[in-house]
Amino acid sequence: MSDAGDYSILNTARAILCEGAICDHCLGRQFAKLSTGMTNRERGHTIRLMLEMIASTGADVSEPESERAKRGRCWVCNGLFEELDTWVSRGLEALGGCEYESFLVGTRLSGLLSENEELLWEIVGTDYAEPLKSELNREVGKRIAEKTNRSVDFTKPDVVAILDLTKEMVRLQIRSVYICSRYKKLVRGIPQTRWSCRTCRGRGCEECGFTGQMSVESVEELVATDVIEAMSAVDIVFHGAGREDVDARMLGDGRPFVIEVKEPRKRSIDLARLEQEINEHCEGKIVVSDLRFVDREMVRRLKSKRHDKVYLATVSCAGVDQDTLVRALDDITGMIRQRTPSRVVHRRADLVRERKVYSVLLESFSVDCAVIRIECEAGLYVKELISGDDGRTMPSLAGAVGADMVVTALDVVAIKDQVGESYSSNSH
User: Fold this and answer.
1) Can you tell me the mean pLDDT for 258-273?
2) pLDDT higher than threshold 60 for residue 381
3) Taking a C-beta distance cutoff of 8 angstroms, is the pair 159, 173 a contact?
């Protein structure tokens, strides 16, 4: 660097020291971009030493600014860098009991420290400076890494330790864990996810027995109990590949889903054991299978796919003979126009949608009941395909036979992917 450059740096350093007591960390940080291979503390000490040497030659007859700067607590960080060990101890305490392989340290500055730094930058500029929080994150992170033998990860850490300088505490942001699986629902009357009461919206009222929910339990809650306990988590979010009606069973190979485990303090658990515990706990209600860890991208992939389905519908058909019913099945094969069903129009836009029925087969027939196998495009309302929903679905089986037809029981027996192949458990 030229003599003019050296002179400029030293003048900037003098200007900083004239503002009041400042520690080596905060002094050196204002020149962090000018050299590598040393810490800000070492950089600040070197600059201070150079000024003292110049002053000792008599070139500066006034009292050296560096001497004044040594008096009192640093006005920029308010002594923060004298308390590094304290913040390391707080970080280690917060991380204790949390399973992680990688971490990152972040800082939430107090208003005072932010203001102090901005005041200094107004005087000397930010051309060579590094923010206070960057140095604090690095210095605390290095010490925690040494003590825990864990690695720092700047892109996808398992946990971020936030140094909250205002509250003088460390809080953790723990990265979610994602588990993919499939579930079978063996009984009717259980929704897939938590179903908040429409009247009180989850607050609790007489309508819902002050539970806040329309249903006492759901697939999500049944799974959540064991997952939260096994992973010491705060909660889960359930992401399903579509959903079946509350009164429909989910059979066959089951429905794919992903559990997003929120703030797990345990990450590497035995999924085979967890699967067994869930199935024992939920015996007779649901069965889960093929639990495996996946990444966050799996949620997007699961939600973006269109999952065609195969249903078995038990239909009341009193007064309709078998031959008439079989002929009518051909009429509901092909493109179907469905206006949003009256039973869900209160929560969905009232639109007309076109969905395709690939095939309809009669599985069994009795005097007043038939079982029909329906393979159809994702998004088709099967109950309305049968009943017609007062003309909102056309064509419909009721319209084709000229008699009332109602689904009395409905089962999903297969979930298919976009190309019509079975959605196998290893397709993830």
Assistant:
1) 96
2) yes
3) yes
Amino acid (one-letter) located at 140: V
Q: Which CATH class is domain 309-415?
A: alpha beta
Q: Give DSSP secondary structure letters for 128-169.
A: S---HHHHHHHHHHHHHHHHH--EE-SSS-SEEEEEETTTTE
Q: Name, in order, each residue with C-beta under 8 angstroms of 41's C-beta and a sequence gap of 6 or more.
A: 23, 24, 25, 28, 81
| pLDDT tens for each residue of 122-135 | 988 888 899 999 99
The encoded tokens of residue 230 equal 């096994």
Residues 6+ apart with CB under 8 A from 98: 159, 172, 174, 265
Fold that domain 3-174 belongs to in CATH:
THUMP fold (3.30.2300)
The C-alpha atoms of residue 173 and residue 123 are separated, in whole angstroms, by: 36
pTM of structure:
0.84
- pLDDT of 403 over the 80 cut: yes
Q: Are 328 and 401 in contact (CB under 8 A)?
A: yes
Q: Where in the chain is the domain with CATH 3.30.70.2510?
A: 177-192+218-304
Cis status, amide bond into 395, omega within 30 of 0? yes
Other Cβ atoms closer than 10 A to 105: 25
Question: Average pLDDT over the chain, rounded to whole?
Answer: 89
Domain at 177-192+218-304, CATH class = alpha beta
Strands 102-108 and 151-152: parallel
Give 167-212 pLDDT, tens digit per residue. Answer: 999 999 999 999 999 999 999 999 998 766 666 666 777 665 666 6
Query: How many Cβ atoms are within 10 Å of 4's Cβ, its own excluded?
Result: 8
DSSP 236-268: EEEEESS---TTEEEEEEEEEEEEEEES-S---
* Active-site annotation holder among 24, 245, 389, 411: 245
Q: What are phi and psi of 65, to 5 degrees?
A: -60, -30
245 carries an active-site annotation: yes
- All CATH 3.30.2300.10 domain ranges of the chain, comma separated, are 3-174
Q: Determine which helix (DSSP H) or strand (DSSP E) holds 105, and give its type and residue range.
A: strand 102-108
How far is C-alpha 319 from the chain's CA centre? 53
Helix or strand (DSSP H, E) at 42: helix 40-56
